[in-house]
Write a structure and sequence with these properties.
Strand order of the largest sheet: 2-1-3-4-5-11
Strand content: 5-15%
Number of domains: 3
Structural class: alpha/beta
CATH topology of the largest domain: Rossmann fold
CATH architecture of the largest domain: 3-Layer(aba) Sandwich
Distance between the termini: 96 Å
Shape: elongated
Length: 355
């Protein structure tokens, strides 16, 4: 590594560290924040560069380097309180680490989200994060693109070309959960889909159907009910599924709120979960362990997704993204098995009616 004058060391920025170490500024940020997804050799080069440049990753040092505090907008309109809570925890944590101010604005789906986005742009916001369902809002994305405002969409099922995004593979996650339910011996598996306006919902439905198809089981339209990712919609959907002539022995809901509602409907009907009915969810929010039985679900790293969204947006605004940094970040999911799933109960055949 080449030496630089002492005065320049005192004014070193994160970009200087990245240049000296031969990595992107985002990689430097990951090392500073002690994230695990950095190779040891890369971490050592970055730490050596930090030492050589006398770089201090704190607010005072950034102020000396002439880096102003950024204002990052977060638009939300998510009906799940559990999802929103985890998203905010991650966003606020990373905003503090990145010396950015997080401006949180609630909006209603319709024309209101476009109006709020424009208000943030007019107020001089540096960039905007769009969690679901706003991650799929064509109107908001068009306004941001027109104004040249950087944005990161989170948890979209189909990332838009040229737009920064952070998500998991919803198709693969739903396929894995359906495979798990099939492995228990279930063949009549109901599915509660999420909001039809969200691409992640469509990908989860596709994953469910792909698993059935691979197992040689024909998809039954009577076993798919539409929800809206809300608890209330889950109640209605579960009633529909349990009222069919040949009801399912398992129900997989596209989020934990609708899965919890399914458990409530089963309890009300005297149906044992999981003895008579397996119920599985998606997201692994706090609700998954706040009900009984606790939900088997797909763990989506919501807080980590929001942290990476803030980090990615800050890097983009400060033009610290390297050429090799991907536009779309795909994080891992985990199938978490708890008490709400079991093999289907083997019922004795009905005794013949005597004449």
């Amino acid at each position: 590594m080449s030496r630089i004058p002492r005065r320049q060391k005192q004014l070193a920025t994160i970009s200087d560290v990245a240049r000296l170490a031969g990595v992107s500024a985002m990689t430097v940020s990951r090392v500073i924040n002690r994230e695990a997804n950095v190779r040891d050799a890369t971490r050592q080069m970055v730490e050596q560069a930090i030492t050589e440049l006398n770089y201090a990753p704190n607010l005072a040092a950034r102020s000396l380097a002439g880096v102003r505090q950024l204002r990052i907008g977060l638009l939300y309109s998510n009906p799940s309180a559990g999802y929103l809570s985890e998203f905010l925890v991650g966003s606020l944590d990373q905003a503090s680490r990145s010396a950015a101010q997080l401006v949180v604005e609630k909006c209603d789906i319709g024309d209101h989200e476009i109006e709020v986005a424009r208000q943030l742009i007019d107020a001089g916001i540096d960039g905007i994060i769009l969690p679901p369902p706003l991650c799929d809002s064509e109107g908001v994305l068009a306004v941001l693109e027109e104004s040249g405002t950087p944005a990161v969409v989170v948890a979209t099922g189909r990332p838009r070309a040229g737009v920064l995004s952070v998500a998991i593979d919803d198709f693969a996650a739903a396929l894995a959960m359906t495979d798990h339910i099939l492995s228990l011996g279930h063949r009549r598996i109901g599915f509660i889909a999420g909001n039809p306006n969200q691409t992640a919902s469509a990908r989860r439905l596709e994953g469910y159907r792909a698993a059935l198809d691979r197992a040689g089981i024909a998809s039954d339209l009577a076993l798919v009910a539409e929800g809206l990712f809300t608890y209330r919609s889950g109640l209605d959907a579960a009633e529909l599924l349990l009222d069919v002539a040949d009801p399912p022995t398992a129900i997989f809901a596209a989020n934990d709120d609708m899965a919890a509602a399914t458990v409530a409907v089963a309890h009300r009907r005297g149906i044992d979960v999981p003895g008579d009915l397996t119920v599985c969810g998606f997201d692994d929010t706090t609700l998954a362990t706040a009900i009984w039985p606790e939900l088997t679900t797909i763990h989506q790293p919501i807080a980590d997704m929001s942290r990476i969204a803030v980090e990615t947006l800050v890097a983009a605004v400060r033009e610290q993204r390297g050429e090799g940094d991907p536009l779309a970040r795909i994080l891992d999911f985990t199938l978490i098995r708890r008490q709400s799933d079991a093999p289907p109960r083997k019922r004795p055949r009905a005794a013949p009616i005597s004449a």
